[in-house]
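Margin note: ligand = zinc ion.
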Amino acid sequence: MNGSFRVGSLFGIPFYVNTSWFIVLALVTFSYGTELGATFPQLGFAASFLLGLVAALLLFSSVLAHELGHSFVAMRQGIEVKSISLFLFGGLASFDRESKTPGQAFWVAIAGPLVSLGLFGLLRSVLFGFNTLSPLTAVISLLASINLILALFNLIPGLPLDGGNVLKAIVWKITGDPYKGVVFAGRVGQIFGWLAIGTGLLPVFFGYGPQLWNILIGSFLLQNAGRAAQSAQIERTLSSRTAADAITPDSPIVRSDLTLREFANQHIIGNTREWKRFLVVDETGKMIGAIAADDTKKIATSDWVRTTVVELTQPLTLETITASTSLLEALQMMERIHQNELPVADETGAIIGLFEKNTAIEILRSERETETHDTPKSAEVQVSNE
Ligand SMILES: [Zn+2]
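Resulting structure:
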């Protein structure tokens, strides 16, 4: 994450703190220190601020306990926790994959708020043991409230909050479709976002100042809920299409036994795209290397009929995907190996075409247009014209 640095590991999980968190640390220390100093004048300046700092650090531990709640349940499901980060608004545990069933997703999502609620209950019951007000009970009572707020705020049913993930799991369970869950929870998050902004602005109409926190939280919800719904839509489209649906027409693939003359006539002259490199395949369709279009210039045109493609072929090893690979997997692979195109092979291993990253983007674009214009056929038309 941007502006975060690692402070160590907890239960084998890399642990990061965002620089924005230090602003909160300073603010809480200052405001709570001031408050303690006013309530308990006997404490003195230094002791009140020290206690303010302790309270701020315990607040930080409460957020951490919440994130560890999510993480432990995820780890029990065999999910790897990549990191826990603390930032301005709270914490974030990121996992290497999502839960496999709606039930499991539900438990990962609810675990954090349950930890916070548990801490709230525990701290409140500790307070019963004290009958006088002291700086200690004041800190415990503050922590109890903070844990309650952590639980309730995170239970707002909009993505990316825990409540949104709980909602997603429930809709997933009912419909059997995780994407429907994300889209639904994303929409609800947007409604809550607008509500928060609305309630934040409402006082202005009555001559008061706006509720800045509501507006801030509302915009955070809107921004992220919209993003969650959008990325779910993208993933759904990409996982429903295969590489076979997205092969570039006139892919730059040439047989090794062609003469340069045939190569130029059939593949270079009149081709809609000016390919710089062609993949070379043998008679069974297996890839044996690549030929650069410019390399043909090294041979006199008069010799083209006597020279075959194989003579100019350079060795090349490229990862290939099969025709049935989903576009989502294909793109993840491209991301991993830093490549914008991948040869597509059929079940015998013969190369049948090239899949380019741009084609996936084009598919997504036309899908979006299809949705807005409600003309279900345009997606196919656009792709095959490409
Ligand atoms: Zn949470």
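Residues 44-76 form the longest helix (33 residues).
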